[in-house]
Prior knowledge:
The chain is an alpha+beta fold. It has helices at 3-34, 40-76, 83-86, 93-155, 159-191, 195-198, 206-216, 218-224, 241-257, 307-313, 320-330, and strands at residues 202-205, 227-230, 236-239, 263-269, 282-287, 334-340, 344-350. Among the domains are: 3-78; 199-350, Histidine kinase-like ATPase, C-terminal domain (Heat Shock Protein 90).
Amino acid sequence: MPNKEIFKSYIKEKIFHVIFYGAGILILFVLASLYHYDNAVRNMSYGLFLILFFGVIHGIYDFLRYRDKCMKLKELVFHTEERDLCLQVPVNLPEKIYQEIILAKEEEKRQLVTEFDIRKKDMADYYTMWIHQIKTPIAAMHLLLEDDKKTQQREGQEFLDGQFGQQTNRLAAEELFKIEQYAEMALHYARLDSLSSDLSFKEQDVYEMVKQAVKKYAVLFIGSGLSFSMEEFSCKAVTDEKWVTFVLEQFLSNALKYTKAGGIAIYGADELGEKKAGKADYVVIEDTGIGIQKEDIPRIFERGFTGCNGRMDKKSTGIGLYLCRQIMDRLSHTIFVESEEGKGTKVILGFAQEKV
């Protein structure tokens, strides 16, 4: 807080004291002049000088004390954790009452924060438990589909019936896979606040992580009818395998979701997103889907933002890309998105390691 601002505030606060102080001195001079005492005015001027001298000394001392109090109170604005411990000792009853009000508000705020933290933890625990619980019926449904497929093959059903059964099983498997992915997204979202404690950094082969993600999404690739190409590249990065794989899966899911014709390509690239054979620091996931409107691109990583595509789909939550940005930022990796409406989208994931 500038001294000039403090001085103006001090003068404004003490102006009536100065006026009454001056008026009292003026009254003494008027009384002395009325009684016509010899040399009364001249003799009183010595007293006036002493009064003014001690008044100035007191004013300087009082201003310095006032400034010190203002500076300490200003510091309390930035020390929220120890605000109640840094309050100055009150010098009068109004200050004491004000401090009691502040302390009561601080205690109320602490109780609200504690209650909020408890509710937030309970909610996170519930979501985590729910997701783990829902994985049990999902796994059971996987087993039932496998058993049904084996039963059909064993019983030797007619070709058309078998073909219908296989088609039904494939569609059921696709929907089941989507349910599983939505549950995984909810689990990652619930764990986002504690991401730092969940990280395990090791040197990873990014190409192998991409292969795992593609293999996981094979059931959707097969049913989509889209072309797919993946060029071999070399990319090593010190990162967390679980969280990076989740990011890769989210972008594969979006590519499949918004691409109705054409295909999806994955390849290593340079920092400009151009194909690069051999060692690469960037991975590109490119599709020929519906693309993203130009005005939506700057906001696609905002929490809850669904854009034009999400509003048309009516099933988008706006959480997936937000999670991807948060994860990549905390892993010190980068994401760039290039897209043109009606022509497709190119997602560039950067895994370049900083040189020391």
